[in-house]
Amino acid sequence: MAPLAAILSASVVTATAIPDSLIPHYFKRATSLPEVTVKGNAFFAGGKRFYIRGVDYQPGGSSKTADPIADEKTCTRDIAEFKKLNINTVRIYTVDNSKKHDFCMNALADAGIYLALDVNTPLYSINQISPAKSYNAEYLQSLFATVDAFHGYSNTLLFFSGNEVINDVKTSVSAPYVKAVTRDLKQYIGNRKYRSIPVGYSAADIDDNRIETAHYLNCGTDDERSDFFAFNDYSWCNPSTYQTSTWEEKVKAFSDYSIPIFLSEYGCVKTTRTWDEVKVLYSSQMTPVYSGGLVYEYNKEGTEEPATLYGITDISSGSVKEGKDFTSLASAFKANPLPTGDGGYKTDGKASTCPDKSSSWLVSGNALPAMPAEASQYFAKGAGQGPGLEGAGSQEAGAGSTGTASAGSGKPTASGTSSSSSSSGSSSSESSAVNGMQSFSLGPLICGLVVASSSLLGAMLL
Description:
Blueprint: H1 4-13, E1 36-39, E2 42-45, E3 48-50, E4 52-56, H2 72-85, E5 89-92, H3 102-110, E6 114-118, H4 131-134, H5 137-150, E7 156-163, H6 175-191, E8 199-203, H7 210-217, E9 228-233, H8 247-253, E10 261-266, H9 277-281, E11 290-295, H10 307-310, E12 313-314, E13 321-322, H11 324-335, H12 377-381, H13 443-461
Parallel strand pairs: 4-5, 4-11, 5-6, 6-7, 7-8, 8-9, 9-10, 10-11
Antiparallel strand pairs: 1-2, 2-3, 12-13
Helix pairs in contact: 1-13, 2-3, 5-6
């Protein structure tokens, strides 16, 4: 750490010349991309409608879990390719919440690129078959630590509370826990006084209960409703059209949906990918309902089909080799600029009606599990150090929820407490430790340094 006198002298020249080691990660912000917010059923950035145009990005894939934006060399290499595609968003499925991301998040922002981030990891996630035990304080601590690590970047676009947790009829029993996680993330963001980063879900490409899932996540009180709904869709297989792909049918099904919808994965590989769907996705046929989408995926995984077919690049050798899908996708994006204007979005809308229990939807009513009592301490003091990708895992750890939440109990509160109909958690006292401090402006600190340095300089000149 630099001597105090050196710090103070430097602040005379520039009020922001404070050593990086003295600035907690909460205050590190990416460069000047406008923060994205939700209005009606659309995203907006800087007063303009924001359409997601990007790729899903996870070098190594599920077989070799790694954080691509914790490594300067990796993200520098790949951001150069993102620029060729002229995209504005990347989705990352797994990050290490124990590592720093300043360099890569700033590099992404410099390239005009936002991050859509999954907060779960292979070790910290909801068990889709037996969700109750896996929904515990250790699990939420990891998710909250990820929010802590990324909330300060202006190009953090959104958080996914889950990905394909519900992927058939029997796994619909996990829906209340997915929805509870969305509620908890929103309450944590509010209680920590962070900016309102959208939280939602990425659904599987299934017809069994996609509509039920969408309406379930958008019904009930505002504190538990998703801020957006995304789903993976591989139904457009060339040759295809707006009608034959079933896209028209889905647009009609969601015509009255009141929150933003986008494709969290698309790009069928059953035939040659010529990306004809790009023109339609950003056309007036879809913009009143959809807000763009993410191509699956940036890099090839493994050496066997179908994993090798989805990647538009091959980075198995460490360097990037652009595939034919990369070239044709870049051409499709170039030929179809993002829409101007508001795209016919809906300015407001009502919550959905909760779906009834049925043969394809095994959830009755809208009662949610109360947040595990031990997790309420994080609302006041912060989550602390994240477990990263080498943690002990959470699915078999600790006590889970012990009650049913009261409607509206997930609304952020000044005290940071959570209430339920049969259990409640008490908040810990405020802490000013770096890992748990409330977000505040650097202005007073900088001004204080400037005043102190000026006084010191004046004394030296006497």
